[in-house]
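question for whoever is on the cluster today: can someone run the full assembly for these? four chains, 1076 residues total. i dont have access anymore since they changed the login thing
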Amino acid sequence: MCRWAAYRGTPIHLEQIVSAPGHSLIDQSHCATHAKTATNGDGFGIAWYGERPEPGLYRDVLPAWSDCNLKSLARQIRSPLFLAHVRASTGGATSRDNCHPFVQGRWSFMHNGQIAGFEQIRRPMEAALSDKHYRARHGSTDSELLFLLALEFGLDENPAAAFAAAIRLALAESARAGVKELIRFTAAFSDGEALYAIRYATDAHAPTLYSAPMCGGLGHCLVSEPFQDADAKWHEIPAGSMVTLTAGGMSSARFSPLQTEAMQIAAVA
Amino acid sequence: MCRWAAYRGTPIHLEQIVSAPGHSLIDQSHCATHAKTATNGDGFGIAWYGERPEPGLYRDVLPAWSDCNLKSLARQIRSPLFLAHVRASTGGATSRDNCHPFVQGRWSFMHNGQIAGFEQIRRPMEAALSDKHYRARHGSTDSELLFLLALEFGLDENPAAAFAAAIRLALAESARAGVKELIRFTAAFSDGEALYAIRYATDAHAPTLYSAPMCGGLGHCLVSEPFQDADAKWHEIPAGSMVTLTAGGMSSARFSPLQTEAMQIAAVA
Amino acid sequence: MCRWAAYRGTPIHLEQIVSAPGHSLIDQSHCATHAKTATNGDGFGIAWYGERPEPGLYRDVLPAWSDCNLKSLARQIRSPLFLAHVRASTGGATSRDNCHPFVQGRWSFMHNGQIAGFEQIRRPMEAALSDKHYRARHGSTDSELLFLLALEFGLDENPAAAFAAAIRLALAESARAGVKELIRFTAAFSDGEALYAIRYATDAHAPTLYSAPMCGGLGHCLVSEPFQDADAKWHEIPAGSMVTLTAGGMSSARFSPLQTEAMQIAAVA
Amino acid sequence: MCRWAAYRGTPIHLEQIVSAPGHSLIDQSHCATHAKTATNGDGFGIAWYGERPEPGLYRDVLPAWSDCNLKSLARQIRSPLFLAHVRASTGGATSRDNCHPFVQGRWSFMHNGQIAGFEQIRRPMEAALSDKHYRARHGSTDSELLFLLALEFGLDENPAAAFAAAIRLALAESARAGVKELIRFTAAFSDGEALYAIRYATDAHAPTLYSAPMCGGLGHCLVSEPFQDADAKWHEIPAGSMVTLTAGGMSSARFSPLQTEAMQIAAVA
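^ ran it for u. tokens below:
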């Protein structure tokens, strides 16, 4: 069970969300005493947008809480748009290539969730990648593969449709392989302009997703689990949703990849 | 709060105690869901005796549970005497030099506990080291320093007296510095022949220490906390004790560094 | 340009070949002042056979010369059969999964050389793997892939034929992709019984391979480049050869994967 | 023999000096084929000034050339003042705490050189630190110690006098210990405003120091060794000099710690 946080809005130092004591991603992931799940000590990563179209990327396999570099970077770097992730591996190797976020060109992506029986369907899923994206696969996680498939299926044009197609592919391959068709998927991703998040599962247990305004409404934070002690007023995003944060604010839409009708967009607070 | 396990007896593969699923040091340190303390993800180490007088030493700053090398080593290496430790730092830097066990010559040492206000008395304690042992200080932990002081104070001749003197020095420096005089100290150490363990604190909260026979009585295991699911019948060692495991079996003695009379030895089970 | 050394014979401590000052693998790879190629600082690995059918494996991404763990392990572990490798990456990621040796079951493998234009033919080469071996691919190197292909093509039954088939596949895919057909391949591998080495290239520049008797003839060492200061009398193995070390001594055979006639075995020294 | 580069002037991306192919610090440290010394694979570090008084710090023990994080950071971070260092250890442990630059408050420092027989005089030199700076010692290098001593001896008020006093202390302790009195010291350091560099040795072999204008004169670069292929016109700074870069340009002064008369400042270029 990974944890992540993402931010879009007026530029803030990463540390406000990544490493501030008592109410930040790292602090929560370390002090898992009260948590239902084990601590998140299998690596971490941050992707942030600055002056260039492509994000910066810093990932390592140490526990986030013991990484002095991360602390210093989070204190120095100010950004209007960033993703941060702490990993709790459920068996995969601990290597930088398997740490979130993943970056391709100007896109960044991170994920909490899983594909049931992934090892059984990994190969046919990889076969759906064009040569270009196949070459871009550096690790072995289901998360990176879903990201590459979304790029394959038109992430640049229609993010919701692209991830819907990636999820449908996984389910189709599960069915073909006789594996239980189960996906849980709570993810955040960005092209450097908008910040997107999806909360979805084929069963009733979609990993949680929350949003909160920050900086007096000049920014928004999206998190997989709310920070316990923060002042932020967390709003739970319902399962089957896709949230989009732009300069114009936050909007939400249904995300139901298994339904053929076009997914409709409805503005939200 | 660190965790450790030590073994002496008929040679066994390290994995039996270090990494076996469900009832080993690593497994317990990872799944801290039910534990009162945070998980132990700030490094680990093993010291084992083989053909040479000096032990082998393998330490790293990754969480033990994600280290493939450790898994392979624990599966290959068989030893009649070894120490294993997983670290939960309470603020110190995560570096290999700060990981237990510490090794000097044929001696190995590992520790769970703390000296209150250590940063205030670290310098005068280091001043008590001879040049030889001062040069041997590679890290910054109180644990390594207590070990070096014990070497300074005659560990080769009288282990109980040596650690008693190190503890008295720490308390004297605490008093001099006006720091609260508090030490908690549950440690295991070996010279390659005997395996020793001490459970001691100046207050009522000495970190726990347990022993259990293994291999049908051909070996003994000492642990800071019992493995939850193991078959082993754990016996709690009372605070203020020093336990010695030799070819002749296990003996126990009072360990009361603040009392001037000679500490008496009493055979035990 | 990687460097490696392998040993088979009477059990010796790994340090005799791996880390002894002045005449060992690590020493040579560090002091590359006189060498034609850059130093080997992109990770290292050792695989050694002990009591179990499967070898132990220790790999890390640090330069070998600065790894205290490696020094200690090489000093403690004694083995009749082991492989050691230091890596100089030519562009690939530095991760443990890309460090040699690679291990599958009881087989170990390490390599110096390259496939020209590998990125262009990586995908069709991976497609030749059965699901079982596809799942066993953890890294992204050409070396690991050649090893998995050899397993696919019958390494258990006929090592020479298996690697010949893997090399032919690579050349066929190069031709199909319009990439220059060039392989340089100097590798060592073992099943825990015999130690094999191949020196081969499609051009005139097969990476070097040398052998030398050790321990008064009770063991043999194979190296990619001779240690400069060692007493050992190095014998150069000609390109297009496969060497086999067993309890019965060393034998050599032609290795010419592009010729259809059976490769013939000729006893040597 | 370490290598370093420092920059002050109009803000530039770190990559221009740190990681650009063909003419940057990392590139030069990797391709040491032509160099007189071994490659610099024992860690690296960057310290850069941004919006805060204290610099950001990123250090790791991997070879700089294989660190994807460094490449990404150097590409994203733009700074008017930064220090970058690649390390070639001459025996000390490879740990982050021993990697340059060192940072204390708003000061940063990095160094190429050595104190002869440092292990013999390390203890009395450490004894000259006040408790405050003694506590700030995290590693074991002579470089960090000279930096802390300079802080002790008034770095905030008079950088030249502070380092002169630190060097005199080292020489005095060498004399007292009967060790050969030899220091070689080419260092760069900054308080976030000015960038300083010193080139000094007690013998004729002061490690080199070069400067070059950059960005059409809007910035200056100081390096321990010139980049081979760069367009920059390198100017060698003579031994026994201290260079200061401020908004007003570059000035140079004699640096002769063993002479009692005040060191005089002479404007340059």
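summary bc i know u wont read the tokens: The domain at 3-106+186-267 of chain D is CATH 3.60.20.10 (Glutamine Phosphoribosylpyrophosphate, subunit 1, domain 1). The helical segments of chain D are 15-18, 25-30, 68-76, 118-127, 131-135, 142-152, 159-177.
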